[in-house]
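Sample pair:
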Amino acid sequence: MGSVRTTDVEGRLRVAKTPISKANICPYMGREIPDGQKLGLDPERIYQMLRDPDELKKAAPTFNGLPVLEEHFHVTAANPRRDLVVGTTGNEATFDAPYLMNSLVIWDGDAINRIKTGEQRELSSAYRYVADMTPGEYEGQKYDGVMRDIVGSHVAVVPTGRAGPDVLVADSQMETMSMKYIPRAQRRAMFAKLRPFLAQDADIEAAKKALDCDEMGKDDAAETLRNLLGSRVPDEIMDQVLALFENAATGGALNTAEDDDLEARRSKLKEAGLSDDEIDKVISALAETAEDEDDFDVMAEKMRKAGMSEEDIEACRAMCEAQGAQDDEQSEADRQREAEGARRADDDRAAREIKDRKDEAAGARRADEDRAERKRLDRERESAGAKAAMDAAIKKAKDDAVAETMAAMRELHAAQDAVKPFVGSVTMDSADGVYRFTLRQLGYDLSGIPSSAYRAMFNQHAQRAETAKRPAIAADSAAGVGLLDKFPGLKAVKIKG
């Protein structure tokens, strides 16, 4: 399939179309659900919430032009967190069931490398929604509530997203291919290649589910297997397994199961990159899928021509069926023995790994102890003067810190007392914060003014306010008053003579 990723001349990664969310059911803790407390939800209980396809379709335009982050964070215009933003979504958000699709541009080089290496490749959309806790069923799976009125907030590039491994930074066009059921014999051939790389039974079951899926294309199966197996299977082995997968399950040109000519089968498998030994195994696996009933019908017809009675033919059929059942039992026993051997090998490998880790840990502990002893001896060799100087420096630093704290507290209290007549009690962490709040309340525009100037500005305002409150005094209030007016008692004095 053609790649949907391109890199422009500036090194930015552009993804033409990729799923950013999916209509499905995902688990959420009660505390994660909006208004969960009002809805009476248990904060520690897990609720299955449906991203309804109709709601996603309606919400598609709200996912245009959103920031792409390298981790989830509530970003706004007031708090953009430029350190987390690595790109943006496009303006082509559409719902193509079950996916919400859009384009992406990633402009951060480190983020691009993490996407290419697979360290961070899944997408996780963040959005607001209204929780409708009406239970129901979607595609055979029960849910506890539905997300309504979805509005996009941002998209994060994460190692693992809640929507699933198919919601990722796409590399190729999405493939839709209907797969046929893979017979047991073909699956055995595939698992025989995978089993040495499977660590536990859970891996085996996961791999079986991936290969048995009826709705998974080859590329999707490859991606699912690689995710499940944690890159433990080398690419060349994975390619061979998927060649078997395609030959057994698809109706394409490589479907050797439908070729009667043995050489045609071999030629196609050779073109798929399989060795001669691997081709022999595939041919053998395909041969094992022949229908026993059809073979016996041919034999029965030959028996009739030879003059055998129907009773004898049915007796032979019963014997063959019994032998077939016995073969099935034997095959099951072989599988159990094989599984037990694989488990023992896994146990032995795990025991070796545990021993290796213990040995490494013991060596690391000894190295740490030696290093700690050397440091202790170095400290003992330090001079008393150096230690005293260090103690003095520490004491001075503590004293300075206490003095700075006390000075800051005094300045804060002085500022609070100073502004109280103007704006009342103000609670802030610093004197600058008190003056900034007060000046803004008084109508000052502080744009471009450093915080160090706030106190002086407020003092000027306070002085002007105080001057304005003083009563005006006439300039001639004292000069125009006579002696007797100033001293009225003199009027009663009589001068004799």
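Residues 172-181, 249-255, 288-294, 474-480 have pLDDT under 50 and may be disordered.
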